[in-house]
Specification:
The complex is a heterodimer of chains A (372) and B (396).
Chain A: E1 9-13, E2 25-31, E3 34-41, H1 49-56, H2 62-66, H3 73-88, H4 94-122, H5 127-147, E4 156-157, E5 160-161, H6 169-192, H7 195-201, H8 209-214, H9 219-223, H10 231-234, H11 260-284, E6 303-311, E7 314-322, E8 328-334, H12 336-348, H13 353-362, H14 367-371
Antiparallel strand pairs in A: 1-2, 2-3, 4-5, 6-7, 7-8
Helix pairs in contact in A: 3-4, 4-5, 4-11, 4-13, 5-6, 6-11
Chain B: H1 2-11, H2 20-58, H3 74-84, H4 95-110, H5 130-138, H6 141-151, H7 155-186, H8 191-196, H9 211-227, H10 239-242, H11 252-277, H12 290-318, H13 324-352, H14 358-386
Helix pairs in contact in B: 1-2, 2-3, 2-11, 2-12, 3-11, 4-6, 4-11, 6-7, 7-9, 7-13, 9-11, 9-13, 11-12
The chains are: A alpha+beta (372), B mainly alpha (396).
């Protein structure tokens, strides 16, 4: 008996595809609706940001760091600041650290809101996205008042932050948090526990804890696999030891441990934890200066340093080598999205084409962060 | 139709010796023109505006509000824009089929209006197989969509077209099976016959005739949404997966045709449900004037249909999209068996109570009212809760 001749279909998904979150490209080999493999093709958004650092100097590089991850630019700002401070041994004023944490945690909420909203959008629910964006817009308003920018903040400086909190800002921020906590519940009622939504996410793209470590996943993607690893707790930096907060981990309540639903729920719960940190920080914020004295012609001593911080997309590493001049000899950024891209090829086998979209969304991949 | 023709002849508008055939022909021609140009096509446009406004309200946005009062003329502006746009036909496509596909979809959208029972007199053709005709011509959509997807010679379009074929063909079955209970009870397939078998009061509607018809009505509505490519079943054009599905390569007026058909189909979905289960145009006999009664019936029918159109917009703004395997599971593992049970259950019911069970109508209507009350209470609760005072002015 002769078998019917069939062949796999090779689909080119991206770089101009509505749900690839920027310019990503996947080469999908599919048998009907079921994927055999999805091969990520990165590099469409490479802007040589690390090389630019070698040409513009330490202070001048700060605005460029915003572009490493424009969805949560506060963390890239902070990472660069922390790396330079460690290199030159600068102590950031206590109030400056608080300002950093406040700005960064607001940015984490904004980033996660965008992530969960876009995820619902990718699954076809249009309403949660606008609701999430509405809340993010208010955070943008707050941050605009703080530093004048809404997306690429350039708020932090080597040795602290550029500006102190404006008068009355603290009350506004607390009022926003009062508004935000119930909104999170409303958002859950709107979409998170929706039957179709859970069915689409649970048991899809399951990552085992061993795989997560082997593939170097970080941040919410790692914690969703049940591994309690948060740089803010485990390698404390800044003033995070002064706050009480939990590290949400995935529990496989809706399906298997480490599925897309776990990653989604971890992000929702992290927003509540960020809100907790913000309340404490806004209550406890001390007085004093926000910016340490740093020479205009900043020349750190010869040496190298590596710092880690917990960005919206997880463990972000900054490696800086100084040769004693006003320009860094080498800068390297280690980002969570790049690692997350690596595991897509492995997970995609056997999933449906519609699941690839949810998988990308659940890993919270941001295109500029992959390529830098 | 006959009553209207007799009424017109009696009124002397066509002279003393007007032949009934001639008057009937003129009436049908005028009515077809009015229905297509005055109702069907503008309805599709207005629904596009209404849907965007309803969505905007649900999504706490503003929506189109610039062209005309409350943006009401936005659909005309969009139509003009699409007509003026270049009609791109890809080199690699199968041009004749590519060009023809939108017209087939439009055909599937226009043909059902022939048996649209607007009132006791206003119906173009009261076919004796009315409901069968309606379900069969709406299924023509699948030919157009599959043709569009395949002729585009684009892999995304092809997947969209194939998904659409699988989906529409599958959901035809529960939809068809859900019509049977009503046909069993009335013994007719004629739209007017089915409506005449119901009363104006809700307890006389087939929706509340017995528990099986209630379930059948819900299955029919969900299946009709799936056939009309509406969320949560909008897989053929799933924009986050397939770019624009079968319509990816289309532009200009041809692109608009697909979406006109989709929006227009909402009316047809609503009309089928309203006719079969919600008493159609039935209105209490308040006046002897045929014209006034007909106007009241048209209003009644449209209110019911537009309510169902609104519900489908509401669903579309609320629910995420299902996956193709879940779609098929829902159809074949749940809807088809339940539809068969409905059919057999109704047959038994009709055998026991050939003229229907009057008490059951009241009981089910009361139950439905209680359900609606609980639902309304939940909606109001969430509306109140979500309308929390925002504590600072966002535009500082």
């Amino acid at each position: 008996m002769s078998t019917l001749h069939t062949e796999e279909m090779t689909l080119n998904m991206g770089p101009q595809h509505p749900s690839t979150h920027g310019v990503l490209r996947f080469v999908v080999r599919a048998d009907g609706e079921v994927m055999r493999e999805a091969i990520p093709d990165v590099g469409y958004l490479h802007r040589s940001i690390e090389k630019i650092a070698e040409k513009v100097g330490y202070h001048g590089f700060m605005p460029y760091t915003d572009r490493v991850d424009y969805v949560c630019a506060m963390f890239t700002n902070q990472g660069w600041g922390m790396a330079c401070e460690k290199l030159a041994g600068i102590e950031v004023p206590h109030r400056g650290e608080y300002c950093r944490v406040i700005a960064a945690e607001f940015n984490r909420i904004a980033s996660h809101l965008l992530s969960v909203g876009a995820m619902a959008m990718d699954i076809g629910a249009v309403t949660p996205f606008t609701h999430a964006i509405r809340e993010r817009e208010m955070i943008n308003d707050l941050i605009e008042e703080l530093c004048g920018a809404r997306l690429t903040f350039n708020y932090m400086r080597i040795g602290g932050v550029a500006w102190d909190l404006p008068p009355g800002w603290r009350e506004k921020a607390l009022a926003y948090l009062d508004h935000f906590d119930p909104i999170l519940e409303e958002y859950n009622a709107l979409i998170s526990w929706n039957k179709i939504y859970v069915e689409r996410l649970a048991n899809v793209g399951v990552i085992t804890p061993v795989e997560a470590i082997n593939y170097n996943l970080v941040g919410p993607n790692l914690r969703a696999c049940g591994i309690k690893w948060d740089i803010r707790k485990d390698i404390p930096y800044s003033v995070y030891p002064e706050f009480e907060f939990d590290v949400p981990v995935g529990d496989g309540h809706w399906g298997k441990l480490g599925d897309s639903m776990d990653r989604y729920v971890v992000r929702i719960r992290e927003m509540a934890e960020s809100s907790k940190i913000l309340r404490q920080a806004l209550q406890k914020i001390p007085g004093g200066p926000v910016l340490a004295k740093v020479a205009r012609n900043f020349k750190p001593p010869k040496g190298e340093c590596q710092i880690r911080l917990e960005s919206g997309r997880g463990d972000m590493g900054w490696y800086v080598v100084s040769d004693g001049t006003g320009y860094p000899w080498r800068v390297h950024v280690r980002t969570g999205s790049f690692a997350a891209m690596g595991i897509i090829q492995k997970l995609s086998a056997g999933l449906m084409i519609a699941d690839l979209v949810t998988l990308i969304a659940s890993l919270d991949v941001i295109a500029p962060e992959i390529d830098r | 139709m006959e009553t209207l023709v007799q009424h017109l002849i009696a009124s002397g508008a066509f002279g003393k010796n007007a032949s009934p055939d001639m008057v009937a022909t003129i009436v049908v021609f005028v009515m077809s023109a009015v229905v297509f140009l005055g109702v069907a096509f503008p309805f599709a446009g207005i629904v596009s505006w209404a849907e965007r406004r309803v969505w905007a309200r649900i999504q706490s946005r503003v929506g189109p509000n610039r062209v005309g009062p409350q943006g009401f003329l936005q659909w005309l502006a969009d139509g003009v824009k699409h007509v003026c746009k270049e009609d791109i036909i890809p080199d690699e496509s199968d041009a004749p089929l590519f060009k023809m596909a939108p017209y087939l979809v439009m055909l599937a959208f226009t043909l059902p209006w022939a048996v649209m029972p607007f009132s006791s007199s206003l119906i173009l053709a009261d076919l004796n197989v009315g409901i069968l005709y309606m379900t069969s011509v709406t299924a023509l959509t699948v030919v157009g969509v599959l043709m569009a997807g395949w002729a585009s010679n684009d892999k995304w379009s092809l997947i969209g077209g194939i998904r659409s074929a699988a989906q529409i063909v599958s959901y035809e079955i529960p939809a068809g099976l859900s019509i049977f209970p009503v046909v069993l009870m009335t013994g007719t397939l004629s739209m007017q016959g089915i409506i005449r078998a119901q009363g104006w009061a809700p307890q006389h509607w087939f929706l509340f005739a017995n528990p099986f018809t209630f379930v059948a009505a819900n299955i029919l509505y969900i299946s009709a949404l799936a056939e009309g490519n509406r969320t949560p079943f909008d897989l053929p054009e799933a924009e986050s997966e397939l770019v624009a599905g079968f319509a990816t390569e289309y532009s200009g007026m041809r692109y608009l045709f697909f979406f006109m058909a989709e929006w227009g189909n909402l009316f047809i979905i609503g009309a089928i449900i309203a006719t079969l289960f919600l008493g159609g145009w039935q209105f209490p006999h308040v006046t002897k004037s045929v014209v006034v009664m007909n106007i009241l019936q048209v209003i009644t029918f449209n209110v019911k249909v537009l309510f169902l159109v609104f519900v489908s917009m509401w669903i579309r703004a609320t629910l995420p999209r299902v996956r193709i395997d879940q779609l098929m599971t829902l159809c074949w593992k749940y809807f088809v068996p339940i539809s068969f049970v409905n059919m057999i259950g109704t047959a038994v019911w009709v055998a026991i109570w050939p003229d229907g069970n009057a008490a059951m109508g009241y009981i089910m209507f009361a139950g439905a009212l209680a359900l609606a009350a609980v639902f309304t209470q939940r909606v109001i609760y969430y509306l109140r809760r979500s309308r929390m005072e925002v504590y600072f002015n966002p535009t500082i």
